[in-house]
Specification:
Elements (H helix, E strand, L loop, with lengths): L3 E3 L2 E4 L4 E6 L6 E7 L6 E6 L5 E3 L7 E6 L4 E6 L8 E8 L18 E2 L3 E6 L1
Parallel strand pairs: 2-11
Antiparallel strand pairs: 1-3, 3-8, 4-5, 4-9, 5-6, 7-8, 9-10, 9-11
């Protein structure tokens, strides 16, 4: 399934953005990754079917991952943005949480479906 992200843009330091991604299935494990220029794609946050969430340390307390099952949409609320948050943000899905049984949730190999990405730029 091809996922579609939206909500990226350019903001100043300290600003906020909310990213969205669909479709997000009820029984899917989903995540947000980001990729900055010349760096590898890194895991940002995950949400599982029981709403258990995890975050990379760099965004804890600033980012919130959530899923609206009625709207079939995954969100990433990003507050107090920093210049180092600048990156292309990708949503990823593991339908039915199948790969979750054998692959760590923070690894990109744990997700079979991806979006094209949405750019987030934070300026000082």
């Amino acid at each position: 399934v091809q996922l579609a992200e939206s909500g990226g843009g350019s903001v100043q330091t300290g600003g906020s953005l909310r990213l969205a991604c669909s479709p997000a299935g009820d029984g899917d494990c989903m995540a947000w990754f980001r990729e900055a220029p010349r760096l590898e794609r890194e895991w940002v946050a995950t949400i599982e079917t029981d709403d258990y969430v995890r975050y990379i340390d760099a965004v804890k307390g600033r980012f919130t991952i959530s899923k609206d099952n009625n709207k079939h949409t995954l969100y990433l609320q990003m507050d107090r943005l920093k210049v180092e948050d600048t990156a292309m943000y990708y949503c990823a899905s593991d339908p039915g949480c199948v790969l979750a049984r054998v692959v760590d949730r923070t690894h990109r190999m744990g997700y079979s479906d991806w979006g094209q990405g949405t750019q987030v730029t934070v300026t000082s």
